[in-house]
Amino acid sequence: MSAAALPAASRPLDIRNVFWLLAAMSFVIAPHLARVPAWVGIFYAAIIAWRAWISISAQRFPPRWLTTMLTVGASAAVLASYGRIVGRDAGVTLLIVMAAMKLLEMRTQREVVLSIYLGFFLVMTNFLFSQSIPLGIYLLACVWFFVATLVGFQRVGATPTIRERLVPSGLLLLQALPLMAAFFLLFPRVQGPLWALPQDARAGMSGLSDTMTPGNISQLIQSDALAFRVHFEDQLPPYGTLYWRGPVLWSFDGATWKANEAAPVGAPAYEKAERPVRYTVTVEPTGKHWLFALDVPGGPLPAGSSIRHDLQIRSTRPVDTRVRYEMVSYLDYAYGEKFPQMWRNYALSLGDAGRNPRTIALGRQWREESKDSSAVVSRALQLFNREFTYTLEPPLLDERDPYDDFLFAKKRGFCEHYAGSFALLMRAAGIPSRIVTGYLGGDVNPLNKELIVRQADAHAWVELWLEGRGWIRVDPTGAVSPLRIEGGMDAALGPIGAMSSLIAADRLGVLSRIRYAWQVVNSEWDQWVVGYNVDRQRQFLQQLGMGVNIDWQTLAYWLGGSTFGIGGLIALGLLLRDLPRRGDPSLAAWKRFCEKLARAGLARAPHEGPVDFARRVAGTRPELEAAAREITERYVKARYGSGASPAEARELSRLVRAFRAA
Amino acid sequence: MLANIRQSIADWIFRAAVPEASPVTLVQRRIFILPTRQGYFFAFTLLLLLIASINYTLSLGFLLTFLLAAMGGVAMLHTWRNLAHLKLRPGHCPPVFAGETAHFGVTIETPLRKRFAVAIRRRDAEAMFVDVERGNIAVLPLPAAATRRGRVVCGRLEIFTRYPVGLFHAWSYFDFGLQVIVYPRPDPAGGAPPTQSHGEAEEGISIPGDDEFNLLRPYHAGDPPRQIAWKALARGQGLLTKEFNATASSELWFDWNDARAIDPEARLSVLCHWVIEAERLGQSYGLRLPGTSIVPGRGEAHRTRCLNALALYGDPKPQ
């Protein structure tokens, strides 16, 4: 017997329960700590330590004026750190501060519940930053922890063991999973957002920017993050043609290349468009407008996008969720022979006066020496090929005349150095040129034939306009490091990213196979879980056979039906186990035994007890004596003696089945 | 407010005969279930999580929201199941003196699983929580203040649980008609028990402990431990009780009129004190109240009979 008699209000919170809650909250906040200013982590740790100390040594709670002051102070610090109090990063930081303060003040069961619900919100805030599988699993464990904490707090007057916390809460969540899946698939999805998102809601996404200065792509190259995935309908085109066009940069100020926002809409007519390639791109959120395609794009454009005259495809809304689109591109093409004069001027701008004088002088000199544009191009490429080195760690360049410094002094650089200086040389030689940034190549996953393009594949190249030929693509990096063009980044520089040294050491290819399998899993996860949106849901429901026009009512019926179905099954599973066992298996076996004997002409008289009956059977049919005695003894023991275990009851019915009277 | 409405509805729905036959099994139709305040708050939290998921198009946010919602639904089943099929029986309700705390005993038994944090409470009193293990009988002594002599009636009891996560409150009512007899508060100011009653001729010797030892007889349940022959037990003769000669000389009569006090309740307190004292000293005593008379005797049963007569004198209104 155990009982608790203290009134609920004055009962101090059980120290174990408090520690469970502190631990659960810390687990949930842990992924955030790398993202928020350092003082937040220190503040949180200090408050948690304080709360733990209050519980351990039964200290007094801090007075209200002190907690109010701390709250106000911490909020002010958030405001000072971010310059505002709303928005994703500031909001999350504020929530962490509030959670810490709530834990510090927590005295009653009601405040505990409030803290746990706040914890659920903090789980949600983690998804604003990542929705990857590992984080999902981690946060599921956190939810388990929180539910276990709730269970602990419900055990009034008892101290549950770790098992008694984790098992019931785990069971609850496990039984909730099928219902969760049904709701996830069938709950009518609405295209968000419901109201304007804070500006930084999607901050921290890596990707190309709409400017190019020597050095900014090589930073991107260090990242192993996924840029987009491509699924080709037919065969994979040759590696050297996989130029994924992104922002096209026209303006130049002497160091930085910039996209021209004024570029008119509408693709130019292609003079030649052959070798079509069909593919589907799933692009990761970038927060920017452009979409990626192989040159040159044709066919219908992705929904909600337009194409500029420089063949840049731009989405009307910023790409702040994963976007999937189908594309057609032509690998053999010619276009832009009739090129407007105004844009020719843009494509010949040499930047601010007086910058990079030696580069410009070199370009002009080449033009004077040769009237043939192709010859000028070849000279430049030969120059790169002879004297230059391709490196991921280029030396710092002079700020005023970076391309002079690069061409005539450092001679070591990365794709943006080559593209930038090449375009400038061409412009100086009177050849209209523009920089295209994007991605080159990718990594084919042999398991699902998907092309994975990572940030590390970022690249910059040049497009030239030649009289009579239109726009053509020239990649000066190829002149320096042909491997980069033909074999990708890994071939040019060795594997890149966190796993690079491991993969390099892995001769049997086990690791890369695991990596490919992991990519497939991630791809499916992104498409079916993270990317499950209005369109996906429609697609899924059509596959279920709901037809093309699905209204809310149908969906509600399905949702209700599956809820009741699954819920009913769970309820049945739980409640059936509680029903008292109907009938005694030993008695049933005994009845069957008597029936068998009755058919053989030995019916048991109603007044006859089992032992007497067995004796009579033994008297009339001596050959049955042994079997009849064994059955009777077991039955008597089960029925009138110490009872029968399930195994013994099974043995009794087995004996009766084997019994032959006839 | 809500609790009151719930109470009245339950009063109306659940009009069982009082007292109910023991044991009461909590079958399906006896158990009610509603969300707690925490449960409603949980639903509100889920709504906020859902809106956030829609607004930020967070698929894992949807998963979280639906996981928690489904968990709530499953928790309802578990809460209900934590109460279902429990067997309740009336327990021990020992008498108390006025001013003490009365306890109504209720025992809970589970035929199946172990049950956690099952609670029983009287209407407005603090609930008592207990874990019920299979094969063990959990005993809950529910306290109630016994301010006046007479009887405290337990009334209808509520058995409830919020386990496992506190989102739902499953409850049932039962009433075994439990009551506790409350003896008058003994008044030490009454002094030592009077050795001679007015109007009675018997001469009594008031020196305690002079009773003559008469014989040893087998122990009966209820014999005071004082009278057990411990030496005989030590010798291995089993439990024996020492019987004393009830000599006429030590026979006392406590009369209503002897207890000189201003009001009847004070008189009863004095009489109560005498009964306790006389029993403690091992004397034989009788009790005379207006309309009642208990012939002299001794022992636990006799004492209880006398105290009951005092407690219920004049048939006081139950508390």
Summarize the structure.
The complex is a heterodimer of chains A (662) and B (319). Chain A is α+β, with helices and mostly antiparallel strands and 662 residues long. Chain A is built from 23 helices and 18 strands.
Structural account:
The complex is a heterodimer of chains A (662) and B (319). Chain A has 662 residues and is an alpha+beta fold. Helix content of chain A is 51%, strand content 14%. In chain A, strands 1, 3, 4, 7, 14, 17 and 18 form a seven-stranded antiparallel β-sheet that branches. In chain A, helix 20 (585-599) runs antiparallel to helix 22. Chain A starts with 14 loop residues before the first helix and ends with a helix. Residues 1-7 and 495-499 of chain A have low confidence and may be disordered. Chain B is elongated, with a radius of gyration of 28 Å. The longest helix of chain B is centred in the N-terminal third of the chain and has 25 residues, at 59-83. Chain B has a five-stranded antiparallel β-sheet with strand order 2-11-10-6-7. Chain B contains six helices and 17 strands. Chain B has 319 residues and is α+β, with helices and mostly antiparallel strands.
